[in-house]
Amino acid sequence: MPQPNFRSPPLPEDLRPRTVTDQVFEALYASVVNLSLPPGTKLSEAEVAAQTGVSRQPVRDAFYRLSQLGFIQIRPQRATTVTAISEEAVTQAYFIRSALEEATMRVAATTLTPADFDGLERLIDLQDAAIKGDRRAEFHALDDRFHRDICQAAGCDFVWTLVKDNKGHMDRARYLSLAFSASSAHLEHRQILQALRDRDPEAAASALRTHLSHIVGIVARLRIDQPEVFAP
Predict the structure, then answer these.
(1) Which CATH number characterizes residue 64's domain?
(2) DSSP the chain
(3) Pair 179, 207 in one domain
(4) What is the domain range of residue 224?
(5) Which end of the chain has less Cβ packing within 10 Å, N or C?
(6) Per-residue pLDDT reduced to its tens digit, 66-91
């Protein structure tokens, strides 16, 4: 069974202490999203517990959380497996994310400060370095942080919480696409930031809408290139 990376925790979203279940869940979540655990992979509570050095209960709880997100399928007396990517779930995630973040962009365009803009500019520079170094996991994390920081700077932390809870299936497709889409995503982040600097709410919302809408074409391309990772 492919092993999730338990030694490199994801970038912290906040400073709240993580429970053992949180740590196991986050490691498995990241491994499903980046396809270290590809669709069809069989997961064993006992094996994951042994790999992490924890008891089976936190692993069982983490499995349940992943199943509620649709990332794994738990069937009594049968193997627990990683699910294929659902195009319907990706579309739903895109709809939710686009609606919430477009509204946030309109707020951000009128509320972000010069210091906020400078922080976002630094993130974009780091994204550029990640692309040049072909560090896809790093780019993916910086991409998330760019969107998260805009929400937080606009005073809309709750938006990112909702987005984060609903974007997992979209993330799986996005991660697969980074080989051919990272550079365009980086450019679009610059366009979003420029619209925010211009204090133009509608331009910022439009730039964000264009940025997220590429997921439709991404899924269509991946269905041709890697049909095995998608549900029929």
Answers:
(1) 1.10.10.10
(2) ------SSPPPPSSSPPPPHHHHHHHHHHHHHHTTSS-TT-EE-HHHHHHHHT--HHHHHHHHHHHHHTTSEE--TTS-EEEPPBPHHHHHHHHHHHHHHHHHHHHHHHHH--HHHHHHHHHHHHHHHHHHHTT-HHHHHHHHHHHHHHHHHHTT-HHHHHHHHHH-HHHHHHHHHHHHHHHHHHHHHHHHHHHHHHTT-HHHHHHHHHHHHHHHHHHHHHHHHH-GGGB--
(3) yes
(4) 87-229
(5) C
(6) 999 999 999 888 889 999 999 999 99
